[in-house]
Design brief:
The chain is mainly α. The protein is about 65% helix and about 5% strand. The chain is built from 27 helices and nine strands. The two termini are about 45 Å apart.
Length: about 750
Amino acid sequence: MQFRHIFLLLKREIRDQLRDRRMLFMMFVLPLLLYPLMGMMFFQTGQFTRQTPSRVLVLMPENVREQLTADVVDEPDVWPPLFVRNDDDILSEHFDESLFDSTASQRLLQLQFESYQPQSDTENAVEKLARKKLDEKNCDVLLVIPPDIFDLLPDEASDFKLRISDSVLSINPEVRSPKPEIFYTSSNQKSPIANSRLYTALNRWNELLGEFYLKRCHIDPKIASPLEFIAQDTAAKTGFQGASFWSKFLPVILLLWALTGAFYPSIDLCAGEKERGTLETQLCSPAGRGEIVLSKLLTIMTFSVLTSILNILCVGVTAYMLVSQLQGIGLPPRLSLFWLILALIPTSALFSALCIALAAYAKSSKEGQYYLTPLMLVVLPLVMIPMTPGQELNLGMALIPVSGIVLMLSSLIEGDYLVALQYLPIVLLVTLGCCIISVRWAVDQFNSEAVLFRESEKFNLQKWFRRLLTTRVSKPTPLAAILCGIAILSLKYFSTFVAQSSNLQISFVINVLFSQFCVILLPVIVLVAISSSSVRKTLRLNVPRWRAVPFAILLALFWHPILVAISQLVMYAYPFSNELRDAATQLSVQLSDIPVWLLIVLMAVLPGFCEEITFRGYILTGLDTKGHRLRAILLTSFFFGFTHSILQQSLLACTTGIVLAWLAIQTRSIWPGVAFHITNNAFFMLLPKLLEYPVAKSDWFRTFIGNPESITGEPGGTPGLLYGPVGVIAACLSFAGCVYLFVVSCKNTEPEA
């Protein structure tokens, strides 16, 4: 690789991009005009926006109306007033002002009054009336005051009981508490808001009633709330005032604009040059394909970085002008721009490489936009999920691409440098690994003549279906394998909503059978029946050499301690929630009555055949193309892992799937993988029974294997057996030795027919 070629191509690409005035206007000029215009529109429209008052319908008998209201001129009644009565003896449309902190809050509840006569079936009649009023949208919330509210409220001193010995003031137990009712509907957006506002006002009235009773008993009401809390923002003196707002705002804007800034240049540099016919000139130059990709990558990164910085400055200035009038929001911390620029470099490299790889496959600019749109849909959740309340930077989030960068920036902007530096190496390694994979993918795209010079295709459903039925091949295409994996994941998702049987044991058996046969195996059977010319070659049903199956069983036994050690790391990074832990414990207890042999059949033998035929048979065979074997192993493991419902179980299944895919490729058969799969799953089922023997209590067993009492029965495919360091190291060495012998024995050998 010659850097001179990269530099010359980089100058050429940047010069071509600078000639496109429309792109320059959209990326550099438009943000300078757009964000101030948006801020002006926000101020202008803010003058016309207001909170809509909530309509409250109050149902109460005539006999309690006088006691719940107060004159606007005379002194208040003995009871704390709930409503207001004007000079014309007409109830006001608002609650009493003593229930609110401000007049604006008082105006948010607009009252309507209706009377009702108590009857024997008052509760049913009132409920029907409330449902009718809410359905007809005559009100947003309905308050029903019982007719005996003041008969039940303690009035006289005899209603109170003062126990001198304990110095406790309590209400006479013979006095029942009144229960006003509130009716609202969650089908209307305004109704829950009105319910919240009404509940706040009634809660304040309830507090005033309590103060009234304390005064009647000659007790100072302040005794009920003796403390006065003073809140002080210490961030005002440290330079991080309002940092929590900026930490949720700036990283999201930065990453979205980094992706958007790489979006359009990548389309123009790849699909656009195909349309203009200038890509062939670069391919005929002395520069290699890798040098061409790097020059385009640096060009896209340049525009992505410049676009992001310009937009973040414009957005930051406009947002500060909008929120500067809010209390507690100040300028972003001084080092915020520095942290954003540092994070922008690897982020732009990642997005640029992904955009190049996708845009290289497109034949035209229009087609390139279709391919890059799903990329934005995938990135958006990774950017927005870390911004949900309660999300913090930890090991699990640091291992997620893009999300780790967002949380890292949030910690740095908030000044939490200790946590940020703790996970900085992990975030950088994950981002660097994703960048390398993306660049490698882009280079592979440019090395493929079928991708660069792909002709435009016109899809005809009738011809495609006819070709699907008439054309039979012994090996599925990569696209067919990927579509099969996506179909299985979709069926797995929808199968979770299938109604389960009330009998848990029957339900468990039915769920396993349905999952294995209908979700995992059925799509492969349909595809093989439609398009396969040789079932043996399509599903890798070749008979391997006799030594392959014993080797696979031995590998499974040595793999068990390694997988348990990996499970401990997974549990540390992604611990179970309390709800999932309780549900898994309950399920384990209820399934303990199922015979062990039936569990082995359902959890070991059946998955061993069905999942191997599907994933290491059809999908791996379709993805296993020359020069892309590693990609085939990883994609197959991804599909295999995420057919498991629990995240922790999916990660462990992905790891085991790599070993199973490697076995299938080495032996060119699924039968060693079937033996490995059955042995691995059955060992987990039988391990608790094996540990009941006296040999498990010996000292040497505890030294090499672990503590039998540490089995916890966690979900995720692994028991909580903690192997000792000696046992894990011995298992790793034994597994590596078996792999070496396995490779040597399978090298340059063909499987037996």
